[in-house]
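ZP: hey, is the manganese (II) ion complex queued? I don't see it on the tracker
AM: it wasn't, my bad. submitting now with these inputs:
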Amino acid sequence: MSTSNAALAAWVNEVANLTKPDDIHWVNGSEAERDELIRQTLASGELIALNPETHPGSYLHRSDPSDVARTEHLTFICTPTEEEAGHSNNWMAPDEAHAKTRSLFQGAMRRRTMYVIPYVMGPVDSPYAQCGVEITDSRYVVLNMRKMTRMGTPALERIEREGHFIKGLHSLGDLDPDRRFIMHYPQEDLIESVGSGYGGNALLGKKCHALRIASYHAREQGWLAEHMLIVGIENPAGETHYVAAAFPSACGKTNLAMLIPPASQAGYKVHTVGDDIAWMHVGEDGRMWAINPEAGYFGVAPGTGRDTNANAVDMLHKDTIFTNVALTSDGQPWWEGLSKEAPAGLTDWRGHPFSPGNGKAAHPNSRFTVSSHQNPSYDPASEHPGGVPISAIIFGGRRPNLVPLVYQSHDWEHGVYVGASVASETTAAQSGAVGVVRRDPMAMKPFCGYNMADYWAHWLNMGGKSDKLPKIFHVNWFRQDEQHRYMWPGFGENLRVLRWIIDRCEGHGGARETPIGLVPTDGALDLQGLDVDSATMKELLAVDRAGWKSEMNEIGTYLDGFGDHTPAALKAQNRRILNAL
Ligand code: OXD
Ligand code: MN
């Protein structure tokens, strides 16, 4: 196979001349192709077959132990000036970056096959979808891209029709962290990733294309590319509201997207459109419409169990690729949280007999890759070319202290301020220290493809496009008491908070004014049958003025750090709230 698109043919040629693969394979997405890839990866040891009775079509991949998470310090935005990338990104001049990667890609695919993967982010016939081509020497990447994107022949056909595509070049290189780079050239529509096989670094359609490159174009073209789940909540009367929610990595986006209503919320249904990324456009009717550019989930396994996310457990029993989970003696995947006790005879994620003194059985950032069609709560509206209408945008983070369970912004501009000031404890999804509170505006700190402050200005501009935009909220499921116990039960019970949010969007739902925003009045949240005492509830909804003053001062300093680029409107919001406090 090859292509009638001259630019694509020339680029593939150029890459082959540089990387010197033994073979070039154009990925068509067929089942025969998948079967052959699986045969080869089983033979090479890249995949281990799981128990075919309990987990048909499912495999375990053990990555290099130094390659288990996104490496933000090795991720660069390569714009002509450093200012365009902004100080929350790592920047490298395009010439320097090209020179570095050129030497690393030189001959990197010798004795390997080079796979050319045409893919579409979004429903294949959506006007909001975008095409890309990833070239990789990793069969694991090809098999993951099959689940995470719409790829193969239909994607190539769209590229040949439209001509335009984002280029992504990936090689495992030698997996040496000292020779690992994830480079983004937004002005060249190009991504180069070398030295890592980890999802966020290697499945280039996801963070690299659908967030970093797409966010850059979204600003030019007047839409939003966001690190957000999309979920529909259907009430007992059969009306569905969709919300989009941004949380930093490993804060439960997948769980919220697949929420199962608890017994007390009978009659409600939850429909999953996406668990990680939303592309949102203002439609002709003035509402915001969102598509999920992805076709699968690359979810965090630990903590996923029948009591926390039964839909996820149910969707992982076939046709799933697991990465860095533990293995039971009868060939089933296992991770902390799947069951209370670790089964006897477990093999840990490194392939050693599990011993509790030796760390976790599954890596804390171990993952599953699965097609979204396997999710019992999958929403067929995910395939609508025009997307789904969004009623509310929700920001959140992991905040053990201070931040209430939920509050609503006064208006769009205040909502942008709320998004810009999101902070959260770091997790195992990125390499580095875990549990440190850092600012993660709109949960986009690791994913914004240009200057973060210009991104805020773009968000503010979007506010002028319509008076029917979603209302903006902030939630915090992670408040802890003095004994470090979670104060809010979370998971399915979060539906109670989503219902208040939807009530607010419909123009009812009790709320009281506070300097930081609107919080539910007594009785406005449905607490029936909930095991949280009233003192705890009061604390979860309280606004601690002294604590918020220092938070606002910190946010002010943070905003100032972006110099002239920081929109005046955000500084004014900061002053307004400080005065009110
Ligand atoms: C992810 C992440 O994998 O945000 O989605 O790290
Ligand atoms: Mn994510």
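AM: back. The CA atoms of residues 504 and 510 lie 8 Å apart.
ZP: great, adding it to the tracker
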